[in-house]
């Protein structure tokens, strides 16, 4: 869905539309905290949290991406999508390509080569970008779930802290809708990780069970969540802009696997380092933020750059960034 929304809008609308999709995730976490607080039966909790999945059937009515259809030279289908969109918005769209030739044998023989994510492994430049994004997503996954697992050690009600953390995604959405378009994806991402490291300091240097600083520790945790959500939103948008349409969905899915791997390893990281000191997991967060900053320096800036369509445009991404620097 994230990729689908991205490919429907112009560059100036990418940030705001992509972040609107992320709001649903915040609502889901808030809903989960609410259900966990009210419902004590795990069976009932499972039922109430899976029922909303029925709404996913609405995705069957979504239009196919015109960018992808044009890339595959399915011009007739792309024209139909444009016409339906224009009709829905009551703004007729002029289709400037010939939509009646895409079924001809001559046209099919000229169809572009089909690329997969495996083509990224054939070139050094694309390989570096792929694994850099994968590692950044892994780092993000560890940070995110380490923070959630440590909410019990912050103080106060766990349900309230998690609900507030979910609510923190709302201001993060507004930040991620403005700053990446103002200062660029790279600068915004780096700044967010620096702020996360600074916000962790009150948690590390205040007593764990001192009642008067519970509010300070909770506020610091919420600030960490806001700027992590901000960095995650920027990274999602950045990833979609780096990968061309030819492999955008595959590249996005494969690199976000790093987020899943990070979330899976976070409990082991927390349990292991906590044996040293109760603040050790937060120190790990600071170290991972530094690693994320270093890795992000390897990625090209995509602010104001039109969405890449063909696989060959992947190399243009690298060259354009090299010229800027």
TrEMBL record:
InterPro entries (UniProt xref): MFS_dom (IPR020846), MFS_sugar_transport-like (IPR005828), MFS_trans_sf (IPR036259)
Membrane topology qualifier: Multi-pass membrane protein
Domain Major facilitator superfamily (MFS) profile: 1-304
GO cellular component: membrane
UniProt keyword terms in alphabetical order: Membrane, Transmembrane, Transmembrane helix
UniProt feature coiled coil, ranges: none
Protein name per the record: Solute carrier family protein
């Amino acid at each position: 869905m994230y990729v689908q929304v991205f490919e429907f809008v112009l560059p100036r609308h990418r940030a705001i539309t992509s972040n609107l999709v992320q709001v649903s995730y915040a609502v889901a976490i808030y809903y989960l905290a609410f259900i966990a607080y009210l419902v004590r039966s795990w069976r009932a909790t499972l039922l109430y949290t899976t029922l909303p999945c029925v709404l996913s059937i609405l995705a069957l009515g979504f239009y196919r991406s015109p960018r992808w259809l044009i890339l595959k030279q399915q011009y007739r289908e792309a024209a139909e999508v444009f016409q339906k969109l224009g009709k829905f918005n009551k703004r007729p769209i002029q289709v400037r390509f010939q939509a009646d030739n895409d079924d001809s044998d001559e046209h099919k023989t000229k169809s572009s080569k089909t690329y997969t994510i495996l083509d990224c492994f054939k070139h050094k430049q694309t390989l570096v970008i792929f694994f850099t994004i994968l590692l950044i997503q892994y780092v993000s996954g560890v940070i995110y779930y380490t923070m959630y697992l440590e909410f019990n050690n912050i103080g106060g009600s766990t349900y309230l802290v998690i609900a507030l953390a979910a609510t923190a995604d709302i201001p993060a959405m507004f930040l991620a809708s403005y700053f990446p378009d103002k200062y660029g994806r790279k600068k915004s991402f780096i700044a967010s990780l620096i702020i996360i490291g600074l916000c962790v300091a009150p948690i590390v240097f205040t007593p764990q069970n001192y009642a008067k600083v519970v509010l300070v520790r909770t506020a610091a945790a919420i600030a960490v969540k806001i700027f992590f959500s901000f960095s995650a939103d920027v990274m999602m948008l950045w990833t979609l802009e780096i990968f061309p349409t030819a492999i955008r969905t595959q590249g996005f899915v494969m690199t976000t696997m790093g987020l899943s791997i990070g979330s899976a390893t976070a409990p082991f990281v927390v349990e292991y380092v906590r044996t040293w000191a109760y603040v050790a997991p937060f120190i790990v967060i600071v170290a991972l933020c530094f690693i994320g900053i270093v890795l992000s320096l390897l990625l090209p800036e995509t602010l104001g750059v039109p969405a890449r369509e063909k696989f060959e445009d992947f190399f243009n991404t690298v060259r354009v960034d090299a010229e800027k620097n």
